[in-house]
């Protein structure tokens, strides 16, 4: 149950270094929110490490942890991107990316050596960061007549929901997020409240 209510991520960048037989592997871990943000950061890192022979990576997105991508960037298939991703998986990390750049030292490491090197560089970058645990939240909009404002606000406060925006026209609309562990209780409380029947519309706008 805890796994479904929380996720691990990071908020700052970090670096880790691993060396083997002359080759230097630099692991670069940083937070991202989408694929475009990663692409921009990746382009910048390739420019900074323009003399590196390979710029391999893995990233993972969303609290559901089901969106990811890996790239071996010229290394033998499965020897770079997948070992990097496995470090994200083993630490249950999401909304972040690891790029491992390799400066070739002249000696071939072989498949086992490459897998180990990319794994260790990624692990070092993670070890030098701070993993934080966040609650998974769902996004809602609740629309109601103004006279119910106090009652609606009491419900939102009771379940520790976080208001993100408000609109007041002919009807009031409050946008809020609520932790997964409180979501069902809040929905039931609102939908089964006789004062709210036929007066309140509760809409899930982006379930995460």
Strand content: 35-45%
Instruction: Provide the CATH architecture of the largest domain.
Output: 2-Layer Sandwich
What is the CATH C-level name of the largest domain? Alpha Beta
In CATH, the topology of the largest domain is named Ribosomal Protein S5, domain 2
Task: Count the E strands.
Answer: 11
How many structural domains?
2
Mean pLDDT across all amino acids: 93
Describe this entry's structure for a reader.
- By secondary structure, the protein is α+β, with helices and mostly antiparallel strands.
- The protein folds into 2 domains: about 1-135, 2-Layer Sandwich (Ribosomal Protein S5, domain 2), CATH 3.30.230; about 135-205, 2-Layer Sandwich (Alpha-Beta Plaits).
- Helix content is about 35%, strand content about 35%.
- The chain has helices at about 1-5, 35-50, 80-90, 110-125, 150-160, 180-190, and strands spanning about 5-10, 15-20, 25-30, 55-60, 65-70, 95-105, 130-135, 135-145, 160-170, 170-180, 200-205.
- Strands 2-3-6-4-5 form a 5-stranded antiparallel sheet, sandwiched between helices. The protein has a 4-stranded antiparallel sheet with strand order 9-10-8-11. It has a two-stranded antiparallel ribbon with strand order 1-7.
- Helix 3 packs parallel to helix 4.
- The protein is elongated and about 75 Å long.
- The two termini are about 15 Å apart.
- The mean pLDDT is about 95.
């Amino acid at each position: 149950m805890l796994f479904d209510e929380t996720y691990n991520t990071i908020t700052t960048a970090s670096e880790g270094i691993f060396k083997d037989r002359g080759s230097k592997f630099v692991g670069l871990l940083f937070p991202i929110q989408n694929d475009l943000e990663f692409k921009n950061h990746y382009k910048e890192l390739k420019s900074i490490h323009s003399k590196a022979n390979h710029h391999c990576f893995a990233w993972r997105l969303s609290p559901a942890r089901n969106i990811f991508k890996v790239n071996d960037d010229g290394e033998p298939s499965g020897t770079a991107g997948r070992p990097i991703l496995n470090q994200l998986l083993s630490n249950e990390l999401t909304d972040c990316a690891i790029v491992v750049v390799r400066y070739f030292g002249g000696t071939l490491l072989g498949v086992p050596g490459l897998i180990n090197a990319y794994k260790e560089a990624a692990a070092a970058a993670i070890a030098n960061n701070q993993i934080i645990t966040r609650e998974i939240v769902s996004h809602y909009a609740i629309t109601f007549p103004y006279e119910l404002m106090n009652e609606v606000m009491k419900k939102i406060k009771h379940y520790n929901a976080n208001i993100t925006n408000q609109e007041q026209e002919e009807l009031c609309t409050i946008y809020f997020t609520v932790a997964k562990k409180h979501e069902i209780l809040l929905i039931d409380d609102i939908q089964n409240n006789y004062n709210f029947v036929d007066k309140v519309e509760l809409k899930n706008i982006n379930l995460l």
